[in-house]
Write the structure tokens for this entry.
Amino acid sequence: MGALDEFLAGLEGFEWDAGNSDKNWRNHGVRQAEAEQVLLNRPVVFTADLTRSWTEARFFTLGRTDSGRHLAMVFTTRGTRVRVISARPMSRAERRAYGQIEAQSQTDS
């Protein structure tokens, strides 16, 4: 089991507030279910986001939805729940980096 899988094993779902849910849809065309799928599908790139918040741990993730859409997401945890802060389509550079990781994960399987 990898570090991400261990981290996710302690979580029990997602928590949404209306502001972030509406913002992700309005600004980026990303629905709640799509954002949630990013953490459930593999491969997923996962790192701590140390640049955005001094008050809570935030995490930056690159992943894909069930339909193959590539998304970048920032989230935090509240107890045992994932709270999505932002979800948007990946930038060109992010897609390129994610594509390399996807290719490597297929080679490793």
Q: What stands out?
A: Strands lie at 14-15, 45-48, 58-64, 70-78, 81-89. The chain has a mean pLDDT of 88.
